[in-house]
Amino acid sequence: MEKTVRREKTKIKDKSMSLFGTPAPATFTLGVPSSKLSDKASQNTTDGLIPSTSVSSTENAEKKENPVLRFPAVLPDSPRMESPWRKVQWTDEQRTALMDRISSYRPSCEEVTRAQVLLLGPVGSGKSSFISSVQSVFNGRVVNRAMVGCSTPSTSFTKKLQSFSIRGQKGEGLAGLALYDIMGLGDGDMTGLTLHDILAVIKGHAPDGHKFSSAHPLSSDIVGYVKRPSLKDKIHCVAFVVDASKILTYPKGLSAIFQQLREHISDLGVHQVALLTHIDKICPQTAKDVCQVYKSKVIRDMINKAGALLGMSTSYIVPVKNYSSELDLDVNTDLLLLSAVDHILQYSDLYFLDNAEQTQLKL
Ligand SMILES: Nc1nc2c(ncn2[C@@H]2O[C@H](COP(=O)(O)OP(=O)(O)OP(=O)(O)O)[C@@H](O)[C@H]2O)c(=O)[nH]1
Ligand SMILES: [Mg+2]
């Protein structure tokens, strides 16, 4: 029996300990239960995660339990590097060049008209926001097409599998890319995603619009089930999405879940990348000016931590700031989002390349 993960609880009960049926380690606890964060801290919109030096005795007790985190009322500027650790051309020209490249992208494989990318990550990590943000860049204004929600920590706002195409600017046709939104990992017992369902989606069995329920695993009985999926039905790349402001408080067992997922997904020959969202929440300078992203030590450290969580080299991980409260586009935010899409497309291309090689070997 496959099980789902509850993130709300500090100790996860045996029956819901693992997303995928294998018991998670007994240490499967949350670093900081959200109820323990002070109101002030949890209301602070520019909060970040830094070690605290001055805390009260009650806070001290909490600190002992959770030595890593405090949410100060006002964040000091975070340390910065002299020169950026990744190079980006923060110019309008580069933004246009990336938009052109993505709009005109076509998979190298003839049978397939679009690279299909599945976004996978914990509840509230920003999967739907990423899709909406990318669509906003191409629409020329901020839109909320993939429904972005205010999910509770354990319940995903997105409930079904939904693909979103990217349309080039000024009436251009569809780009050869579809981003698939799905419900979050770590949902409640009744509605959670199972490993079985995730793999069925990646193998191409799930119809677009399928609503997930752990009570009804994806099977050939459901309407629209794709019995013999071809290459065009499959997922060609998986982008894990993790929230930078929660990396330190995700349940310990999540790392094991990611490892398990990555092994199964790799067995299917699907390449994986990762997006680190909410970077504006951990670095005030980057919140003010996205160009600062690759000079921020806090963000670089968090990318290392995301790499450890996902069991992934940091070269696969890119930071993004999704549009969340903004009404207007910002050229640098666009650039980071477009660079992430470009990064995803590089790994989708590897899938098509691997596939072409295998087909040639069979001939
Ligand atoms: N500040 C900030 N907020 C973000 C960012 N990305 C997403 N959010 C906010 O985070 C919340 C959750 O975002 P969603 O896009 O709904 O997350 P999701 O992964 O689709 O969540 P589920 O569908 O519930 O699994 C929303 O309030 C978003 O506005 C980001 O990069 N920065
Ligand atoms: Mg969503």
UniProtKB/TrEMBL annotation:
Gene field: ifi44g
Native source species: Sphaeramia orbicularis (orbiculate cardinalfish)
Name used for this protein in its record: Interferon-induced protein 44-like
Annotated spans, Disordered: 31-66
Gene Ontology biological process terms from the UniProt entry: immune response
Residue ranges with Polar residues bias: 40-59
Domain of life where this protein originates: Eukaryota
InterPro entries linked: P-loop_NTPase
